[in-house]
């Protein structure tokens, strides 16, 4: 198989409704509707859930089916006292100079 760029392949149930991007909370197992609430939620939890989902989706693909011009890497480390873990996700994109847009695969 080859790289599948369809957003719904990476985030199941993703859809567009008019001018709105619609992604059900259920697409992010570690996120509750309360944590994603527009005014009382926590942007850190929302951002982590999105980046984790994209990283996990990339890892679920065979190496040959991953995009070459968008890569996601992950790092993690445990605090010295073992009470917290730091997780980083790095996104790297190859952009076409003429349009400053993601380059074709």
Walkthrough of the structure:
- This protein starts with 6 loop residues before the first helix and ends with a strand.
- Helix content is 25%, strand content 27%.
- It is of the alpha+beta class.
- The longest helix is centred in the middle third of the chain and has 18 residues.
- The strands form three sheets. It has a two-stranded antiparallel sheet with strand order 1-2. The protein has a two-stranded antiparallel sheet with strand order 3-4.
- The model has no long low-confidence stretch (mean pLDDT 94).
- A hairpin with a 4-residue loop joins strand 5 and strand 6.
- It contains three helices and six strands.
Question: Share of helix among residues?
Answer: 10-25%
- Biggest sheet: strands, sense, closure? 2 strands, antiparallel
- Strand fraction equals 25-35%
Computed Rg: 16 Å
User: What is the number of strand segments?
Assistant: 6
Low-confidence stretches: none
Overall 3D form: globular
Strand neighbour order, sheet with most strands: 1-2
Q: Topology of this structure?
A:
Layout: H1 7-10, E1 15-17, E2 20-22, H2 33-36, H3 43-60, E3 70-78, E4 85-93, E5 95-96, E6 101-102
Antiparallel strand pairs: 1-2, 3-4, 5-6
């Amino acid at each position: 198989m080859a790289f599948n760029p369809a957003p719904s392949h990476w985030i199941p149930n993703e859809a567009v409704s008019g001018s709105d991007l619609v992604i059900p909370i259920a697409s992010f197992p570690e996120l509750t509707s309360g944590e994603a609430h527009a005014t009382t939620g926590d942007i850190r939890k929302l951002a982590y859930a999105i980046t984790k989902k994209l990283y996990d989706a990339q890892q679920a693909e065979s190496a040959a089916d991953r995009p070459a011009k968008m890569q996601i890497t992950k790092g993690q480390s445990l605090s010295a006292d073992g009470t917290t873990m730091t997780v980083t996700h790095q996104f790297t994109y190859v952009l076409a100079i003429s349009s400053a847009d993601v380059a074709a695969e």
